[in-house]
Amino acid sequence: MEDLKERVAAIKQKLDFEKLRQEAREIEALSAHPEFWQDQQGAAEKMKKLALINKQIAEIEELEISLDEKKVAKLELQTFLSGEQDQLAAIFSIHAGQGGVEAMDWAAMLKRMYLRFLEKRGWGYQVVDETLGDEAGIKSITMIIDGFYAYGWLKREAGTHRLVRQSPFNADKLRQTSFALVEVLPKIENTGDISLNENDLEIQFYHASSHGGQNVQKVSTAVRIKHKPTGITISSQSQRYQAQNRKIALEILQAKLWGLRQAQAKLEEQRLKGGRTQAAWGTQIRSYVLHPYKMVKDLRTGYETGDTQAVLDGGLEGFIEAELRSVV
User: Of 56, 113, 235, 298, which is the most buried if we count CB atoms within 10 A?
Assistant: First the structure.
């Protein structure tokens, strides 16, 4: 019992419990002023953040009373999320690799796996852009995942995911290897020195192909923004109005530029240390083998399981927890 009390006290300190309470009080005070509600979208985001903070405060307070071992262990994991951006929402993308319909089907399987994971955690999401495959699956999808510490929990899912299985698209059912790339970026609230020059942007408007209902099919509400210096292109077509899609596309572009800067800094650090500096399309992080045996294995931590169906149904907790603990 004393050990559990000490662990709860350590959790409160590491999660800065008093800071959480202060932040909650500040948002509550702001919401009491009429001008707070003039920016409806901004107000909604603040109130959503307040709800998440209050939920965490309640969880910590409940732990102090119940001292439930499993709940203590679960919340301890969150203390490993100490990055500056970890508590933010996540911009999450899946891209099919080379391999045609096989890779597109694998990308769709990953989409289903992650959506199941989000459902289990009670996190919301918004599909910003999705391109369907020509015959099956998807070529790519980008979504914004709302959840306290969503970026922190998901950022190490970024990388190349490899699937080995008997092909369902081949009459001979030959063994096929497919790849898909997962990208994870924080939905940055304060971009700091990541600024955008309008002269660097090439903006196009077009008819949305999916999401948003009848209105977006008739009007050019979808937005595509190209950042000319880097060649990064972002599309958003989920919202009913052009201005909303433009805002989302700009937010994702800023996150992409932030991620690019982080990657460049990491490469420079490796170069100075004499490490490898080659930038690859993606680093393979996990292998999903469905034939000739069943095994999902994380290549960074060595964590593995033979229950492949549970993993593909969203059971990623063991992999994510192993990766969080490995970097502490």
Answer: 235
